[in-house]
Amino acid sequence: MQKLDTIFTQHQQISPDVYPQPFPYIQNKYLINGELREWNGNFQDVHSPIFIKTDKGLDNFIGRYPMLGEKEAVEALDAAVNAYQHGNGEWPSMTVSQRIACMRKFVLKMTEQRTPIVNLLMWEIGKTQKDAEKEFDRTVDYINDTIEALKNLDRDCSRFTFSQNILAQIRRAPLGVVLCMGPFNYPLNETFTTLIPAILMGNCIIFKPPKKGVLLHAPLLQAFQESFPKGVVNTLYGDGEVIITPLMTSGKIDVFAFIGSSRVADIIKSEHPKLHRLKSVLGLEAKNPAIILKDADLESTVKECVSGALSFNGQRCTALKIIFVHESIVSQFLELINKEVENLQIGLPWEARTQITPLPEDGKATYLTGLIDDATEKGAKVINENGGKHYESLFFPAILYPVNKEMRVYHEEQFGPIIPIVSFKDIEEPLNYVVESKYGQQASIFGNDSKEIARLIDVLVNQVCRVNINSQCQRGPDDFPFTGRKDSAEATLSVSDALRVFSIRTLVAAKNNPANTNIIHKILKEDQSSFLNTDFIL
Q1: What is the CA radius of gyration of the chain?
Q2: Domain that holds residue 342
Q3: For the purposes of burial, counting CB atoms within 10 Å of the CB of 351, is it exposed (0-12), middle (13-18) or buried (19 or more)?
Q4: Which residues of the chain fall below pLDDT 50?
Q5: What pLDDT was estimated at residue 2?
Q6: What is the pLDDT of residues 454-469, one digit of tens each?
Q7: Which region, left, alpha or beta, applies to residue 332 given φ > 0 means left and ψ of -120 to 50 means alpha?
Q8: pLDDT for the residue numbered 409
Q9: Which helix or strand (DSSP H or E) is residue 5 part of?
Q10: Three-state secondary structure call for residue 418
Q11: Is the distance from CB of 247 to CB of 178 less than 8 angstroms?
């Protein structure tokens, strides 16, 4: 393995093509009420997980963004509330076709910003160039797929229903003002999986980017401004206590869309004075297990487990975070996974062979080292030669074995490049782990005995929301449901589910008599209502 202290390099040795432009990237604009406003107050410096060698030592300053205050937060809230106007504003009153046209305009403008956003993904959160490009392209695909899903949903709603001499049209209506907060690990894609459907369904948005991954949204501010009516999308930057608290305590936030930790979600939700009015859409923690049965194909299983545990350094809620291996094959499994991990390339995001990149979270190496120290004190060993070696933001993956329930890493979501491995004799051991866990997102089963797999499926589907057979845990495809039980999620996201999550079924009904049918016929014929209509979107 290359020495970690030699990976960071000098400015002139890095291709200008991968730098954010300009560099440093100073963001001094924010979007409120359709206005791109210039900020002259305090700024937050942005430090990259990527360090540059200079004559004065290592430097990782890459830019800054505005630290807005309570005044700006209230202005953003007022803009969203006024744009919504209790559902009578320009945006919620538009037809579905009109909203789709605005979103198509936005996605065209977004595609023009691919290179700057990809470069900022690399520099802000250390994502490999390949994965950054994939995140951008997948997000564009997600928007287009969501548009198609909305067209299908609206087509289904374009007809009338007759029951017990009552005719009705059942459509979906927006919910109001949405506070949208995304995660640092997928700051574009996962943020947009809530933000885009919320906008398309007619809601008005206040958007706060995560602390890591702020600058990459700046190239899209003008696209938002030019694509949607004023007040539909408003951006806030700054300290959560300063700018989020006044939003929630106002009681004017109707939907809280958040992907992050349950601790932060609970704090923010508790500030809302009308909890029964507030709808929450939450993607939270997970501790997804892999269960390796004694007849598993070890070669393919190891590859899936390494990818599942270490893609983007394990910084994914869907990552495999603990692996249970049958005792009869654990020695062979350890040997294979050791070789696979030791062959991983650690380096800078734009280098072609890089698989492990610098970690963006402050103090993450210290936290991970603490987990390793705790485990080794209680009987585990780091079985790979370079496991746990670190330098600044660089941390080489560590395989821990044997792990037991006395260790922190058995319970805590490490959200980083540590692979805890537990040997089991009785299948009830990993099943009890899943049952007793406070998380319930996904699980993976590796094996070939259909009877045993079937039995595990029937237990696990009542504990987690996705069971993967001979494959790692994952989110996609985006038209599959994505959710979790227990403390892992609230509400279901997918291309079609998200449209329903950010709307509510609403109907217009009347007794089926000549007078009422005449009124409805006239409304339809003269196109008097944007809600009550039989338009079929092509």
Answers
A1: 25
A2: 288-481
A3: middle
A4: none
A5: 83
A6: 999 999 999 999 999 9
A7: alpha
A8: 98
A9: none
A10: strand
A11: no
